[in-house]
């Protein structure tokens, strides 16, 4: 998968981050790869490795898009969640780690979140 600019991350780095979280499963589809925990989806990676979609709260969705529209775009909403499109080449690794971890945390069952130290 492609290289990125100085600030961004590659699809391989995205995979390293997401697959390091407890009990994450990935499933290949025609144009994307889905990621779930306990059978519930929290993220997707496009086939070309350029973009990802991640679950967020509506408040987080608005904040990310407002603060860094080069890296984040509003995708869709489902109930209390606002999915965010992430342009991997435009987002710093530390910020992406936080967004992925929060997406996992919103989705994982309490037995996992209670045992996981959410980064500050």
TrEMBL record:
One MF term in the entry's GO annotations: DNA binding
Protein name: MmcQ/YjbR family DNA-binding protein
Top-level taxon of origin: Bacteria
Organism: Actinomadura craniellae
Database matches in Pfam families: YjbR (PF04237)
SUPFAM superfamilies reported for this sequence: YjbR-like (SSF142906)
InterPro entries: YjbR-like_sf (IPR038056), YjbR/MT2646/Rv2570-like (IPR058532)
UniProtKB keywords: DNA-binding
Signal sequence bounds: none
Positions of transmembrane segments: none
């Amino acid at each position: 998968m492609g290289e990125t600019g100085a600030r961004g991350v590659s699809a391989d780095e995205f995979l390293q981050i997401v697959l390091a979280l407890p009990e994450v499963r990935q499933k290949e589809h025609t144009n994307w790869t889905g990621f779930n925990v306990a059978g519930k989806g929290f993220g997707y990676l496009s086939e070309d490795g350029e973009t990802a979609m991640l679950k967020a709260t509506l408040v987080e969705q608005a904040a990310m898009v407002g603060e860094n529209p080069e890296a984040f775009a509003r995708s869709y909403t489902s109930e209390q969640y606002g999915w965010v499109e992430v342009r991997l080449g435009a987002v710093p690794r530390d910020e992406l780690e936080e967004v992925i971890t929060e997406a996992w945390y919103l989705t994982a069952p309490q037995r996992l979140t209670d045992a996981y130290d959410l980064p500050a």
